[in-house]
Amino acid sequence: MSGKFARKHLSRRTMLRGLLGGAAVAVALPPLEAMLDAHGEALANGDPLPTRFISWFFGNGVHLNRFEPEEIGPSWSLSEELAPLVNVKDYVSVLTGLRNRCEELITHHEGMTAFSGYTMAEASFDELFSKAGGPTLDQIIADCVGQHSIIDSVQIGISKRPSVMDGGTTMHALSHRGTNLPLYPETNPQKVWQTLFGNFVPRPDDRALRQSILDAVADDARRLKGELGTHDRQRLDAHLESVAALQAKVAAAPPACEIPGMPSETNMDVGGREPLIAVNDAMNSLLAYAFQCDITRVASVMFLPGAGETVFTDLGQVNSHHDNTHDYPTALEPVHEAVVYTMQRFADLLERLMATEEIDGTNLLDSSIVYCSSDCAEGWSHSVERQPVILAGHGRQKLIHPGIHYQAAPRPGAAGNISDVLLSVLKAFEPTATEIGAGDPRSTTPLMAITGPNWAG
Questions:
Q1: Can you tell me the mean pLDDT for 104-128?
Q2: Are 69 and 82 in contact (CB under 8 A)?
Q3: Within this chain, do residues 27 and 140 fall inside the same structural domain, yes or no?
Q4: Where are any strands of DSSP class E within 286-344?
Q5: What is the per-residue pLDDT for 257?
């Protein structure tokens, strides 16, 4: 903690107070170090600092030879298809060579076991039909942390081109509460805004009144500044300036936040082209706001649906990505370009989280864990052997940071259980958890190689 003053503890609800025209007025404070406990590891009232989780999905797999890093361990280098993650590499761990132990093989469906630890239910290869075999990781985590936020979880979609390969529900939703409880993603940013912020009414934007209120609380501000350290004084000054500039803070659960305006983007095709970048950017902004406002701590993002029919028109492609993955080996280069494009959109989210400040002076990527995978290892084979996982963020040092490349088995083999990763992540939110999943995919052995110093096993 900065400054030379004796440590003063403040409630997260502390306000600057004064009188204006005989009436009491108050101005909310920004997140300050003084609102944390003596170690900066919790709020002053003992509540833990928030940790967030995102599951992020893209269909049709990757090109393993151009996706998997060559080096193993902490000194790994970005591969061709992971190159877009260059600005957030320290926050990223890549896990390869893991076996998805799903007990049924339909094509694409079995890849979704990597998000739950359950084999699909009611599986039929002939009818290309299945339902989720159990709750997905995001929903298990939502049950652990949802009571701390206003909304338990939010489900977001980017591309609107669903698969024709599933007559059930498994691949049409990334989040499932159970076998018959899919939580379908919303692809319209305006509707996501309504879900997250629609119940909040911003305060009136009255410049003269707000300046008068600042004048009224000036004495209280000067008194408080004398009791704060250097860093907190700087934050307080910046906050008062922002209020004067009409950046009104919303009195919500910690940390305080500013409600974003409704985005103009509605995810409508333009000339038959999906506005993937614009929609992705809008959703990233909404999610960062929602985390900063502590409106929710859990989200799922389905960038490209399982076996999805998205056409990457931004790359000049005319065939769907799903079709390209089956045009082997002719369309290897378009598939590679599409994976790079997808990883750039994933990187856009991570960079937005990294650029958003947390209450303790870190950023949202420091306080989050992001779990990313697909519905197969490579689309042309449908194989879930060597199905890769990307973990980003470390959830307040609960996962290893800086990240590593963990390889379960040398190429071209596979070993271990991809559900071990799910259990490791779950225990970052619920240390008493002992298992996840069922049947052969079930895990009782977290992957210790990815745990950090604050992980409680």
A1: 96
A2: yes
A3: no
A4: 298-304
A5: 57
Rounded Cα distance between 150 and 392, Å, is: 24
Tell me the pLDDT band of 256, cut-offs 50, 70 and 90: very low
User: What's the pTM value of the predicted model, to 2 decimals?
Assistant: 0.82
Query: Do the Cβ atoms of 109 and 99 come closer than 8 Å?
Result: no
186 strand-pairing partners: 156
Tokens 């996962």 appear where? 399
Which residues, including other chains, have CB under 8 Å from residue 190's CB and lie 6 or more apart? 262, 263, 265, 266
Mean per-residue pLDDT of the chain: 86
Residues 315-331 pLDDT 10s: 999 999 999 999 989 99
Which range marks the domain in which residue 193 is found?
A: 51-201+259-450
Do residues 80 and 222 share a domain?
A: no
Tokens standing for residue 307: 């076996």
Residue 288 lies in a domain: yes
Cβ neighbours for 222, distance < 8 A, ≥ 6 positions apart: none
- Token pair of 362 as six digits: 């870190």
CATH of the domain at 102: 3.40.720
Q: What's residue 250's pLDDT?
A: 31
